[in-house]
Each structure stands twice: as C-alpha cells, then as structure tokens.
C-alpha cells in the first residue's frame, strides 16, 4: 500500500508552497484593511433597544410613498381601473404596468379565494398598483382574511341597507370601533409586524366600498352613502337590471332612469368634500362609456374585465384569420370557378 507523507516543519511547508504553480497563497495577493475602516454601520450595543427605533420612521417613509386611492379621491382625482377574474399574476402584472390606477381582484365572480388572490397582490405591488379585494360575501370572516392581506381597498357586495353598511364598516375596524379579529403583529397588512404605525393609520388608508345593486338598495342609497366609514358606493348595473326584471337588457330606459336617480343620491352626500358621504364608483357598459360616467360625477370607473379583454382579443384574432382565408378563396375564384359574388351573398344571407 502506498503511503503519503507530508512535511511537518515550517521550512518544509515553505518548500511545498514554492513548488506549487501559480501559488495563490503568496503575500502579495492579500489585501490588508486598516483597523479603523468600517464597511457596515454598527447597531446599538444595548439589547434593550426597541426594534421600532432601528426602523425607518413611518413619517419619513410615507413622505416618499405614492398616494393611496383614498387620498387621491380626496384630492379630486378620477381613477380608472380593471377587474381581475382570472386570478392570473401575469395578467395582474400586465395591468399594473399598463397604467391602471387600481385593480379589483374579484373573489365574488372569479374562481379564486384568498390564497389565489395573494400572488396577484404580489404582482400588483411589484408595479406599485393599488389592489382592491371584492369579497364573495359580506361577512366578518371573509373581511378579516381579505384585510390581513393588506389591500388598499375592500368591496362588499349586495349592501341593501344602512344597517348592512354599518356592519361592513365594523368588519374593517378593530375593537372597540368594530369586530375585526386582530393578528396585526404577523399579517401582511402590517408588513408582518414590521410597520409600527399600522394600527394608527390603517383606517385612514383603507378604502371601504359598498355595492348597491338592487331596487331595494337604491331606495336607501343616500342613507347607505352617509354611513360613517363608507368611502365609495359601487353601482352594480347588471344585478340592478336583473332585480328590475331586465336581466338581458341592462341598458333599458327604466334601468337607466333608476341608475341616474341612484347616482344623484350618492352625489348629494358630497363625498370627499369634508362633510362625509361617499364617492361614486361603477362599471362602464357598452351603452355607458367611461367618459359619460366621468361627466356624471363618477370618481372611480372600471372600464374592463381581464377575461373580457382576452375574450374580445381572441375572438377578433380568430375572425381576422378566417376572413383572410375567405379572401384567399375569393382570389382563387377570380378565374371563373365557383359561385362568385352571388354565392358569397347567399352564404352571408344565411
């Protein structure tokens, strides 16, 4: 058996180093820093220093942060947004990069829940785009789980009375003002407990939206809008038209008349003017464009739904391809073969 012996004396070790090619241990390759040089700031040595004193003050961070939806509305801005039903983080990110003022992640009509919404909120946060979560149902459990994710806004469906509006607001506030369960030391809404000012500021920054989408609710819309804590009334034209018996005709004259009456009721509450009340929010429809809505006093307009945009683009893409095929067939018939123009007219008339 072969044996390996290694030098033990310092002189033998020096001899071994000298025999190695491109010796990496030569003194000239070492960089000596002066003992007074400092690469990183030193933390306070006392173990009793509170964590919050080591963090950037909230006031300083807030000065550089973008405005919230709530502050922009109070400043008189008109905001344009998108509803996200696909729960696709990729589409959420595209929406944010496209420049929408907000994106509503729709847990009412979309297939996803809280765990599906979180990646969408991550994608929107990466583009500095505010997220609003629409709940599938107005109850404290859904509100608690949604609010703990830290959206800028929350939307409650089917608010038909001031009583329901007051309940919705209570779901958003911690005791004694409300009934929201508290885990503020660990949830995303407070940056997992790193934000020391969360409890002092969450009410000022959260936009609470109540949907009015039935004839019964429209009759009480001024009372709903006047409830303390309700920031926006979101009109629901499709459910409203269905409640009136016009499921297939949301643009019906009678539906439009009720919508106009409801809008005026919200505007009477003078949302954002310092006297309480709510702002007006709603969906654009084929018969009601975003420009028309803005002219009537809407401050939040949702112009599209992600799946609707993709559906329209996909249908148009297929249509263009099939039309190009038909154009090719017409070119082939120029030699006299086939039915010609009369045949085409007959085909389209069928």
From TrEMBL:
SUPFAM superfamilies named in the record: Phosphoenolpyruvate/pyruvate domain (SSF51621)
GO cellular component, one term: cytoplasm
InterPro entries linked: Aldolase/citrate-lyase_domain (IPR005000), HpcH-HpaI_aldolase (IPR050251), Pyrv/PenolPyrv_kinase-like_dom (IPR015813), Pyrv_kinase-like_dom_sf (IPR040442)
UniProt keyword Cytoplasm present: no
Cell cycle recorded as keyword: no
Positions with biased composition (Basic and acidic residues): 338-350
Gene Ontology MF terms: aldehyde-lyase activity; metal ion binding
Disordered: annotated span: 329-350
Annotated signal peptide: none
Domain (HpcH/HpaI aldolase/citrate lyase) ranges: 80-312
Keywords: Lyase, Metal-binding
Family as reported in the entry's similarity comment: Belongs to the HpcH/HpaI aldolase family.
Name the UniProt record assigns to this protein: HpcH/HpaI aldolase/citrate lyase domain-containing protein
Organism for this UniProt entry: Escallonia herrerae
Source taxonomy: Eukaryota, Viridiplantae, Streptophyta, Embryophyta, Tracheophyta
């Amino acid at each position: 058996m072969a044996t390996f012996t290694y030098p033990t004396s310092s002189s033998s070790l020096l001899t071994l180093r000298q025999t190695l090619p491109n010796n990496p241990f030569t003194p000239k390759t070492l960089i000596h820093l002066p003992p007074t040089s400092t690469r990183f700031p030193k933390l306070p040595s006392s173990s009793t220093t509170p964590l919050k004193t080591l963090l950037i003050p909230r006031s300083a961070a807030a000065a550089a942060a973008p405005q919230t939806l709530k502050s922009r509305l109070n400043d008189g801005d008109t905001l344009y947004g998108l509803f996200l039903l696909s729960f696709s983080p990729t589409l959420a990110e595209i929406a944010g990069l496209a420049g929408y003022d907000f994106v509503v992640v729709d847990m009412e009509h979309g297939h996803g829940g809280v765990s599906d919404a979180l990646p969408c909120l991550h994608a929107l946060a990466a583009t500095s785009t505010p997220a609003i979560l629409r709940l599938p149902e107005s109850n404290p459990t859904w509100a608690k789980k949604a609010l703990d994710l830290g959206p800028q806004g929350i939307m409650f469906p089917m608010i038909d009375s001031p009583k329901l509006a007051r309940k919705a607001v209570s779901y958003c506030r911690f005791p004694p003002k409300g009934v929201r369960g508290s885990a503020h030391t660990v949830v995303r809404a407070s940056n997992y407990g790193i934000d020391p000012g969360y409890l002092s500021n969450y009410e000022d920054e959260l936009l609470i939206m109540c949907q009015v989408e039935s004839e019964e609710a429209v009759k009480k819309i001024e009372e709903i809008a006047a409830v303390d804590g309700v920031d926006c009334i979101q009109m629901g034209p499709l459910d409203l038209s269905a409640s009136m018996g016009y499921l297939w005709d949301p643009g019906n004259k009678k539906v439009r008349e009720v919508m106009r009456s409801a809008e005026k009721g919200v505007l009477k509450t003078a949302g954002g003017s310092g006297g309480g009340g709510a702002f007006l929010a709603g969906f654009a429809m084929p018969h009601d464009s975003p420009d028309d809505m803005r002219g009537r006093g809407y401050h939040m307009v949702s112009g599209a739904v992600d799946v609707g945009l993709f559906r329209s683009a996909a249908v148009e893409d297929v249509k263009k391809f099939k039309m190009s095929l038909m154009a090719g067939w017409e070119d082939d018939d120029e030699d006299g073969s086939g039915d010609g123009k009369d045949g085409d007219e007959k085909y389209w008339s069928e």
